Amino acid sequence: RYKKTIYTILAFSLLGMVWHYFFSYHSKTDIEIAQILGVNKVEIESFDYSESWNIQDYDVVEKYELSNSTVQRFLTSSSFVLFDDEYEVDSLLWGKKNWTKKVDSTKFETYYKMAFLKREDFQRSKWILEANKSLGTQDGYHSFYYKKSGNAVAFFVFDVKNRTLYTVSYTHLT
Fold first, then answer.
1. What is the pLDDT of residues 37-53, one digit of tens each?
2. What values do phi and psi take at 125, rounded to 5?
3. What is the C-alpha separation between 99 and 129, in angstroms, rounded?
4. What is the sign, positive or negative, of the torsion defined by CA atoms of 66, 46, 19, 31?
């Protein structure tokens, strides 16, 4: 009788660990954010993220509030080059757009639309609107990776005035 209970608890624990490892999303670390911004060090003051995925789509929007010193590092010591991480391995499949202020919505219209398409979730939609609004200001920088086949984007928007970094990752599996 006790064996059955113990095996059941172990099975649920193992299932929970597998779920957490393979399907749970964790926010980016300060090292990852520093790489994205092209700086040596980042101080994250607060963060939040909203996750959604189903069998065909993967959609994560993150919002990070960064310190004043991080903003200054970005503006003064950043190379404005988006880091080459796992996307470099698949460089034939992925392209990248380095940090810039002006959005080239004609050349990258497909990826821009994927990143900023309307979400049903209120929080995600709110952050996407905030990020999109900052793109139209002098304080908004953006960069992104895009899958050349047109079904995935990892879009980054950095609002230096509000010290906020938004990351929007969207993949549509077909």
1. 888 888 888 888 776 65
2. -65, -40
3. 20
4. positive
Residue 64 bridge partners (DSSP): 47, 165
Question: In the numeric block, which tokens belong to residue 145?
Answer: 């990776």
Which run of H or of E encompasses 61? strand 57-66
Q: Which alpha helices (H) appear in the chain, and where do they start and end?
A: 2-23, 30-37, 68-77, 86-89, 109-116, 122-135
- Sheet containing 140-147: give its strands across: 44-53, 57-66, 164-172, 152-159, 140-147, 94-100
Mean pLDDT along residues 7-14: 73
For Cα atoms 102, 28, 152, give the angle at the middle one, nearest 5 degrees: 55
